[in-house]
Specification:
about 65% helix, about 250 residues, 9 helices
Length: about 250
């Protein structure tokens, strides 16, 4: 019998769909011979580029898919971050930490839209700014959430979930650092593989929020302003009685 909240499905479904969308972009770019396959041993072959995610999403038709994937990922990712904020709102002892974590991820999500809408070979500056915001603030978000998980310890699951998130945060940070070093040394094929691993580790991290979300319900409530109710006049009441079909 299903005892978990349906909201527990949101993080893993988000991660799976985002990963699938990015891999579709990759395979479309490979099919059109715009980038090298990830298993290629050569940095470049003729007109093909290294298989960075941004480069795979630079050329049509893959660029159209890439923009949609990044925009939707930013939007739904922000929803998950807001739900996580609401979940911790009444349990965390330092509200500023919860607010700061939400703002960090919100800015990172904005960076995702820059990555998706400004192709790297068209607007190098804006694209790299978005990349820095996405990866840098994304890694910071991972570490902050790992710390919060260990400190809050929701349902006595904080230790296990926190250790898992610390390991994933370390993997994200390590991939980001190794990628930067490899790119600086012009080892573009290994750097591209590190970038793909970084994104997959980050999506796995987001999917772990299902651990806590399975205990919660999130409801949107709309209430009237607590003022004096307005009574219908006799004329208005007569209209409603005589012409009910107009409602």
């Amino acid at each position: 019998m299903w005892n978990c909240s349906p909201w527990a499905l949101l993080p893993p479904v988000y991660s799976a769909c985002t990963a699938a969308g990015l891999w579709v972009v990759y395979f479309v770019a490979v099919e059109h011979e715009q980038i090298e396959p990830l298993n290629s041993q050569h940095r470049r072959n003729g007109s093909r580029y290294p298989p960075y995610i941004s480069v795979a999403g630079n050329f049509p038709p893959a660029s159209c898919i890439f923009s949609e994937v990044m925009n939707l990922a930013a939007f739904v990712g922000l929803i998950i971050a807001v739900l996580r904020y609401l979940q911790l709102k009444h349990t965390i002892l330092k509200p500023w930490l919860n607010i700061g974590t939400l703002l960090t991820f919100a800015i990172g999500c904005f960076g995702m839209t820059l990555v998706g809408n400004f192709q790297i070979l068209t607007d190098h500056l804006m694209h790299n700014l978005g990349t820095l915001m996405t990866f840098g603030l994304g890694a910071l978000f991972c570490w902050l959430q790992s710390f919060i998980t260990l400190r809050v310890n929701l349902r006595n699951e904080g230790r296990k979930a926190g250790i898992l998130r610390v390991l994933l945060s370390g993997a994200v940070t390590a991939c980001m650092m190794v990628r930067s070093v490899l790119m600086f040394q012009d080892f573009h094929m290994p750097a591209a593989r590190c970038q793909w691993a970084l994104v997959m580790f980050f999506l796995i991290f987001i999917s772990t929020f299902a651990i806590e979300f399975r205990h919660n319900r999130f409801d949107a409530v709309c209430t009237d302003n607590p003022g004096r109710p307005v009574a219908l006049s006799e004329t208005d009441a007569e209209v409603f009685r005589n012409e009910p079909d107009q409602l």
